Amino acid sequence: METNKNTIDQNEISNFSSLASKWWDPDGPFKPLHNLNPTRILYIRNKLISHYNINQNELKPLKNLRILDIGCGGGILSEPMARLGGEVVGVDPSEKNIKIAKAHSEQNNLSIDYINSTAEQLVEWGEKFDVILNMEVVEHVNNIETFISSCYSLMNPGGIMFIATLNRTLKSYFFAIIGAEYILKWLPKGTHDWNKFVKPSELRSYCSSSGFINIDLKGMKYNPLRDTWGITSDLSVNYIGSLHKKNVDN
After folding, report:
1. Is 238 in a helix, a strand, or coil?
2. Structural domain includes residue 109
3. DSSP string, 141-203
4. Dihedral pair phi/psi, residue 91, rounded to 5°
5. pLDDT greater than 50 at residue 3
6. 72: three-class secondary structure by DSSP
7. Mean pLDDT, rounded, for 146-165
8. Domain count for the chain
9. Could you tell me if 165 and 141 are in contact, meaning their C-beta atoms sit under 8 angstroms apart?
């Protein structure tokens, strides 16, 4: 597979490929993402219901929506989106991740189109989506501006993209790297490079330059007493956001 050297970090791909077999272990190296997933799913579901004026009582509210999960890993977010009725395409530059994702979705009788590819490749193929999920990805790519621009090209007019990432602050260095990787050992050492974390102001700039509008960012905060995550106004460590493409293509 050819990859765009401006956005793909081969060291990141190798790192996540080495962990591929652990994606569905709730107590393994991806435990933080498993714990975070209910908060992400609820946030995405509620935003989509509002954005597309969907009846919130629908059993499969995401039906008729074509959803792209970029950097899908083992499919831990793709599968809930499919269960909610979405037509899901999951892409990941790691062939090992895609094999794990395909096997797990087949075991659970879910129809998800998993592709060992990149956002840039999908642009070349002329693919379009109503929804793009960009969860915990931008801090692992090279040239974020080029990557965000590719995402914009993949969106249908009026579409919505979700981004979750980490702020580049001293607090995030302590919690996301020192705390999560070295003290609590939730993540393997070296999972994150603090220098690649993205400040909200930087993300807004990249997204606005690409043409996105209505950029709304919220914080995500971990409650150690309840072992749960929640949405907050504090963007100092983890944050999530939604942004729209205009109804008329540029």
Report:
1. strand
2. yes
3. SS-HHHHHHHHHHTEEEEEEEEEEEE--SHHHIIIIIIIIIIIS--S-TTS--GGG---HHHH
4. -120, 145
5. no
6. coil
7. 98
8. 1
9. no
Average pLDDT, the chain: 93
Whether 1 is in a domain gets the answer no
Beta bridge partners of 216: 242
pLDDT at 4: 43
Domain encompassing residue 229: 10-244
* Full strand arrangement of the beta sheet holding 66-70: 113-115, 87-91, 66-70, 129-135, 155-166, 238-244, 213-223, 228-232
Place of tokens 């090279």: 142
In three-state secondary structure terms, 68 is strand
Question: What is the pLDDT confidence band of residue 2, given thresholds at 50, 70 and 90?
Answer: very low
The four Cα atoms 118, 120, 122, 124 give a dihedral, to 10 degrees, of: -140
Percent of the chain with pLDDT over 70: 97
Asked, for residue 138, whether it belongs to a domain, the answer is yes
pLDDT computed for residue 187 by the predictor:
80
pLDDT in tens, 230-248: 999 999 999 999 999 998 7
